[in-house]
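Readers of this paper often ask what the protein records in our data store actually look like. The remainder of this section carries one protein's record, kept here as part of the documentation.

:::
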Amino acid sequence: MQTSTYNAASSMNDANTQRPITLLLCALGGEGGGVLTEWLIEAARHAGHAAQSTSIPGVAQRTGATTYYVEVFPVSLAQLGGRRPVFSLTPAAGTLDAVVSSELMETVRQIGHGMASAERTCVITSTGRSLTTAERMVPGDGRVDTERLLEVVRHFSREHHLLDMGALARSHGTIVSSVMLGAIASSGLLPFGRESFEAAIRGPEATPGGTTQASLRGFAAAFDAVAAARAQAAMVERLLSKEERAAPAPRALQADLARKFPAAVHEMLALGHARVLDYQDAAYAQLYVDRLARVMQAEQADDPAGEKGHAITREMARWLALWMAFDDIVRVAALKARASRAERVRTEVKAGDEDLLRVYDHFKPGVPEFAALLPPALAQRLSAWDAGRQRRGLQPWAMPLKVGSHSVLGMAALRTLASLKGLRRRGSRFAEEQALIERWLAAVESGTREGWALGHELALCGRLIKGYGSTNERGKTNLLHIVDHLARSPGRTPDERAAAVAAARTAALADEAGTALDATLRQHGAPPRPVREQPIRWMRRPPATRPS
């Protein structure tokens, strides 16, 4: 969520170019829209600002709301030196700073009239509904889907605040207008503080009664709700900005690589090359470039003019880098040992410079993690030993660890583990991953030479490789099954195979269990995935307890 504030202390030179802050208020009958407008005008005057309002009555029987148009000049009268701003009487589409509505459908109705824009308008709306006449006339359920209405609000607003204004008003014994005022006051739209709004509610007589107190309670509830949402959004934005600053800047693309690859690929190539280089070494990064060059040559053979934007090469630059930089215990240790990670953790828990912070990382490496760094022969023996244990009904072997990364010993352990990336090349998993990558790469190459669409769909199958552990293994199994049985399906044209690959990939991403993928494979004449064996573990039944 973005936020916007206006500086009321602008200089006189800035005042010449200042424009009024424009708000459109929408309220149903009996909700106090007129009172809300009077409060806003009074709050502006209390703070020393010029303001003006007009209203357009709505229609009965819930076919429209009464709308109130308010303009507030952001520079105080004292700073204007006797000059008076000129206000407009009617709102203009696309020029509003805020649309405030007590009913969700009314909000969307005003958006449909062009009153809100994604570049400028803050939308403050209730999530509650009061059914329209058209909705009530339907014999069945004629209600409009609320989620669709909320999506319109999100799409056509620079900033939005969603709260159930009716529920807040009822819980505090007041009307919706006071809740709307609290949301406006907390949004930062107007250049004066909370005290001016509360003074407007109390009125000039300063003799608050029961109604005034209820209005102040409703105002405070909405003010706090919007303030909390804005504070949370600001915190997220700060965290993201700090994370971006802490993250290493992508290396500039080397001149020789820039000459070798088309411009459409440069951005993704620079990111992928930097990731693979950071993951292993320069030789591994060169292997990444060589593999990508093979795909580019295949794509240029089919599309020499580059009319399709080198999309296959660009997608392969993304997914190939992610696969080549697969997660293992060395990679996890390297990420946890980085200084940027420690800074992010301190920021997330809001630890001050004088605060002591202890961070414990929990690991549970098993046989697959240790075997990954061993030569294939030793890895096979270790994996066979663990498989035998599981066949006897035992749990897979694992070593639970609790490492205090705030301590010298804990950080030393993480950095020692991170320094073992040289063992990757000799490890069994590295060899397995490179073999699987080559199978996929060869399929993309041959598919691209047969038909651009087929190569593109196979390149997009790189999305299936994600996560770690069983999720990663399942993704690789699905990808290779698609490559073996759909990309090379005899008797089908390249376009037909491309459509089959796309359907299977979509099904695999939509259903973790793989039921949809198996159904799609059968639909396109391919065998379903083979059933993987799962160990059966016999559990001892606990002794029955007799009632006392």
Observations:
- The chain has four domains: 12-244, 249-326, 329-428, 430-533.
- The first strand starts at residue 21 and ends at 27.
